Amino acid sequence: MGGGIILQWISSHIGIPGNEEVDAFANSALFLSEHHSPLFLRNCKSLIKTKFNDRRKLRYNNITAGKRWECILQDENRILLNFSRKIRAACFVDGP
């Protein structure tokens, strides 16, 4: 294969008070030797899938917070999905 991808991220702290020391560290990192870590495609896919699922779960948790049906998205309550539609609907009927 012979191809490679090099990822290098150095955050910018320009204009943020109190971060001069961090800027100095970031700038000094530009002159460090490169570190190569092989990452196989299957590992990349797994990392991306995990990150995607974590973000999706966080997004749905934020969207559903305080809603009556919030509980069906929580892992400990997923058993509700195994019940019939009639039983699931009964769980969310407003009481007297």
Architecture overview:
By secondary structure, the protein is mainly alpha-helical. Helices cover 42% and strands 0% of the residues. The protein has helices spanning 20-29, 41-64, 85-90. It is elongated. The protein starts with 19 loop residues before the first helix and ends in a 6-residue tail after the last helix.
The number of helical segments is 3
Radius of gyration: 23 Å
Query: Roughly what fraction of the amino acids lie in strands?
Result: under 5%
List segments where confidence is low: pLDDT < 50 over at least 5 consecutive residues.
Answer: none
Largest sheet, strands/sense/barrel: none
Order of helices and strands: HHH
How much is the average pLDDT?
Answer: 73
What is the terminal-to-terminal distance? 67 Å
